[in-house]
Amino acid sequence: MAGHGMDEHPHGADRLCEVGDRVYSRAVRRGRVPRADVEEVPCLVELALLHPDPDDMAWLLPTSPQEVMTRLLRGVYDEVSASQRRMGSAVAAFEWYAGLGPLPQNSAGEGSAIRVLDGLSRIQAAMDAATEACTTEVLTVQPGGIRPEHELTEGLHRAMALRARGVRMRDLYTHVARHGQGLLTYLELMGDAVEARTLEEVIDRLILFDRTVAFIPANADRTLALEIRQPALVQYLVTVFERLWRLAIPLTAPLPDTGIEGISYRERSIAALLAEGHQDAVIAERLGISVRTCRAHIARLSETLGAASRTQLGVRIAQVGLVGPAQAADGPAQAADGLPSPAMSLPDRGSRTGR
């Protein structure tokens, strides 16, 4: 294997070379490959896609695609988190420098285009100020599962004040939020001042006031946030929201029928993510449910489809067509104006739950 290092295969596990793809595919199909087959592609061993068979060192066993996917996703998450930390540090540092003296005449106002808010109290203060100044519209995306009632209660007084000023509000949630009694009660109290829609998955938390200022989390635990007033960035976020809104289903409308007896809409969503090779924790995070709830749904899927193993479940999911999009009972949601957003707070102090 001398002379066949990563210099000849400058790639990662997410983009194998042609020979590597062929050998790894063969290993997954057959369960193992002779060590001699890997002499041309040492990258498979160096990337830990293949490892020695402890019972026969002349053979190599494949690392499961699911495990490789989890490893890649973890690496991407770490890179994104590191980038967010660097961005927060850079903005905070130059914000401090900007405070040392007056801005030049030609750059007045540019220093406030993106502001880093460090700590829950500073985030809340900025949110309160934006709420007070808002005169026309609030758009929010609320990820996760069922919103804790204390968060909804905390945001109710702000929402009532906005409604009194004639401000329009719209909220996007995951489908799981439909099961939260607190949200239903909140919407009932707000009446026609609030419109809410749901999707299988949404982006991370986003709050937009009057299409001029946006708030987004800047780290995983949401103790850092960005206040964005740069017009191009704000308009981009508005466009993202509007396109998600058109795809979402009104909270008052039923979820699409899977067309398969005994399979719920959520189980269809889980089946589609399983077919993509995602682990239970990733699926739970994306759908806003707990890992325990996710596994309970997977167990019911296996029972309904008569699958005795995860591998067999994947085959049965493909056979019955659960990987395709479900059709909404009332057709796709049409674009509409409306008004929602209960707890308009970036920090998410409640735990994710689901049914």
UniProtKB/TrEMBL annotation:
Residues 329-355 are annotated as: Disordered. Residues 256-321 form the HTH luxR-type domain. Coiled coil: none annotated. Pfam families: GerE. SMART domains: HTH_LUXR. InterPro entries: Sig_transdc_resp-reg_C-effctor, TrmB-like, Tscrpt_reg_LuxR_C, WH-like_DNA-bd_sf. This is Helix-turn-helix transcriptional regulator. It comes from Streptomyces fuscus. The lineage of its organism: Bacteria, Bacillati, Actinomycetota, Actinomycetes, Kitasatosporales.
